[in-house]
Amino acid sequence: MNPGASHASEPDPASGTATPPDPDPARTPGLEPGGGVAPGDTPPDSAQTSGLSHHQQKPPKATPVVTIVIAVVLAVLIAALIIASAVGWLQF
Hints:
Helix content is 28%, strand content 0%. The chain has one helix spanning 62-87.
């Protein structure tokens, strides 16, 4: 590596932007010749792209509310049928 080269997190004076945060292979422990790692060894961390490639719509808020209301109504109806059957109002 060039001794005058900037560190990965320092801005590049020529372009004014930071250089990629990929590790320097010459200073990364555990790398085999060619850049590979030994079996069972963890490779060095590298840069990742984050963020969305396109706008994702927010899920509708009505769907969970409707689902909960339907579940509660069904539970009340089933409980009413069980109570009515136990009291003797319904004959099966």
